[in-house]
Here is the input.
Amino acid sequence: MHISWKGGLATVAAAAMLVVGVDYATFAANGDSLILGHLNNANATTVLTKHGPGPALKLNSAGPGSPALAVNSGHKVAKLNADMVDGKHAKALLQVKNVGRVFTATTSGGTGQVTYNIPNVPKGIYLATYTANFFPQGTPAAPVAFSCFLLRDGSLVSQSTGLSAAGSGFYVGVNGSTIVKVVPGTDVNVGCGTLSAAWTWGTKPLTATLTRLDGQTVGGLPTLRGAKPGNLSATH
Here is the structure.
């Protein structure tokens, strides 16, 4: 029987390379090739430099639920910019500032109803408040009613009325508030008036404040347990 040791040596050599290859793939270190599908170790930074157009590295995942990249650190990576975060652009992630815009009437008063425009209100949702006090003063026999209000596109969204029955030395204040949504083209107006002919401001002319809110939620008012429908019950 003739045995070819040349072939046997080749087989042994191939087996040895296979064993070394497995070990190499598992413990690849500095200066070694990157072995796909295996753990690669290094104690120095790996740098990939590409010359020419296009990305230096492209990672493809298997699809939804399979991220193309995973990291084990929560530290910020300098100069790593993301176009979208959780489906939102950077501008959508900025915190809305609760900016207050204060407007004060410059007139001394008026006759009947006087309406003022609140100019250049940016898009958003606002807490709108208004306050004023007025003259003439009324009497118990002839009280004077004075109202202030806020309009959105000509429709009344809030109104507050004060009734003066004092003879002298007292100005009746009127205060109101509401939430108003402003979109491009929205006309916001505030005003005051009385049916008692001419009137003037007291110590405080009409002042309106619009404070930007982060958003708005709405809901109903459930009746308290044991309360009769239609009656408001207070708790202390």
Observations:
- The radius of gyration is 38 Å.
- The domain at 100-213 is CATH 2.60.120.660 (Jelly Rolls).
